[in-house]
Amino acid sequence: MVECQEAQLVVTVDKDLFGTGKLIRPADLTLGPDNCEPLASADTDGVVRFAVGLHECGNILQVTDNALVYSTFLLHNPRPAGNLSILRTNRAEVPIECHYPRQGNVSSWAIQPTWVPFRTTVFSEEKLVFSLRLMEENWSAEKMTPTFQLGDRAHLQAQVHTGSHVPLRLFVDHCVATLTPDWSTSPYHTIVDFHGCLVDGLTDASSAFKAPRPRPEILQFTVDVFRFANDSRNMIYITCHLKVTPVDRVPDQLNKACSFSKSSNRWSPVEGPTDICRCCSKGRCGISGRSMRLSHREGRPVPRSRRHVTEEADVTVGPLIFLRKMNDRGVEGPTSSPPLVMLGLGLATVMTLTLAAIVLGLTGRLRAASHPVCPVSASQ
Predict the structure, then answer these.
(1) What's noted about post-translational modification (predicted)?
(2) Which of 57, 184, 247, 277 has the CB geometry, 3.0–4.6 Å to 36, for a possible disulfide?
């Protein structure tokens, strides 16, 4: 029997649960996903009771057009008694629901609404799914083979899957390349820093964000492939810190996507006012990715704006594997040519001696044929 009270539900279970005369043990009964135990009772009682709050024991709340429905279940999970290894009753799960009308008061107190607008609570109520993928050169599909040659360009696509959220705009806050999936290790190379400045494009690379975006929740960018000097490993991992803002918020110095153009010698954003990228030249747009790495490594507290909350996440792609070009072997030509020359001379000498032996053998046979030996008679 179930009583749906104002703030709790009370469940009363007959110990002869199956109607067979075989009584169940209270210890074998629990309520809800959290396995709430029954109230204490005397062994002589013929029933087992539960009394739990509507939001306790993992109860599930569903809202329909006309009612609030709290769902849970009663679980009978028998265990062997004492040292026995047998059971005489079955496992059973009994679903339980309490329905409360949405219209009207459930108490003598007036209802005071406590909810806030959906747009305000969307980030704290649901998880966002962030991703970072390697793409083909035409951005049409994900790259299946993560192999590159030095001089190639990696196409990276950051994305957030918003589901039923309000429209969001994705930003790549900072990115770092390392030799292992652990972004706090050394050596490392910073690709994006200062809250969205693609600093890798400042050097001899042409790395840049792709503009315009295909959609607000997607941000694409290219990185010229590189490898770490003085290290024989031919693979790297790229870790990016991704975050989102409402799509109607104007990009600013802390939420931007800026690329450096060598032809114009200036920074330019994917969207938003052009002056939001000025701080990229000075390197003062807030806490940099390098500062974040140092604070993480030294165990210092991470600022609230950088903690792993639902609207931001660290995502890693890799490994990116680098293959040596075939014509790179030409660099080693001068060091490998002397052995090849000596080998060629040796083969030529052997062939010459072989031909000379053949010629001498043929000459001897011809001389023997032109001067026959006369047979000696028996009388002599």
Answers:
(1) Proteolytically cleaved before the transmembrane segment to yield the secreted ectodomain incorporated in the zona pellucida.
(2) 57
